[in-house]
Description:
There is one protein chain. This protein is an alpha/beta fold. It is about 35% helix and about 15% strand. The chain is built from ten helices and nine strands. β5, α5 and β6 (about 175-180) form a beta-alpha-beta unit. α1 (about 1-10) packs across α10 and α2 (about 60-75) packs parallel to α4. The two termini are about 30 Å apart. Magnesium ion binds near residues 182, 202, 204 and 205.
Amino acid sequence: QAVREAAMLTHPAMTADGVRIAVLINVAEPAELDRIDPAICDGIGLVRTEFLFSSASGLPDEMAQYTAYRRILEWAGEKPVTIRTVDAGGDKPVPGLTIDGESNPFLGTRGIRLSLAKPEIFKVQLRALARAAQHGNLKIMLPMITIPEEIDEAAALLDEAVVELAREGIAASRPPLGIMVEVPAVAIVPERFSAAAFFSIGSNDLTQYTTASARDIAAVAGLNDPGHPAVIELIRNTVQTGRELGIDVSLCGDMGGDPRHLPSLIVAGLRAVSVAPPLVGRVKLALSEIHAGVPA
Length: 296
Ligand code: PEP
Ligand code: MG
């Protein structure tokens, strides 16, 4: 098994009936990349930027963020890199940023909600990203989107950041802005979110919000099942709507790295997954045994 997985690593993923599936990687900490050959993946589908915000020395400034993002983009070369704006709150509290004492942090001020509540902090991240975009194929992703207006507000702040940088004579560009689909209110009516440049399904949160079972409470782990038909239906709906609207759809939650769930994702029409780097070989091998079942 391990030998077969290793043999697949640097080859593009393909189903048994010849359908090409993009396999990208999730990155939580740029130092991980030093041990990974870019040839094993089609790009980076998710950079969780919380690592920058967890230092005891306070929130990262623009230069610290720019340097970190640039390093990741340079590692990837021409391949696409999706960097997610900070998803603080919920299971990821950040001292000095997140709001303490909320009765249910998973339903509180997390992700894009927190960023839009603190635009002066969000703007620093957007400026750093617009600058880093000069060094590769960058896309920006917004976590925990719930209503279309959140995309509009974030887009306006990104546009402002780009204009400011130009005025200051600092090289920058405006990357495409896409969203995580991880709140059922999005996955049920994805057509309302056509302002997004792409959809990336966050199955970890989509599962917890759909099944009303927290991702970090062991007693309800049995209910927290991404294979629940309701979760699969939301994924199918998101993939199909994306296809109709011409919006690329991928999935970056943990179920994409689990061979038990890959057949239902492929049958649902999904053609791109982003997984933890150690799972790439296993995922490519599992995909090679799945029939996508599309007519030739
Ligand atoms: C998800 O929710 O599936 C996801 C990829 O994001 P995170 O696990 O960082 O919340
Ligand atoms: Mg999430």
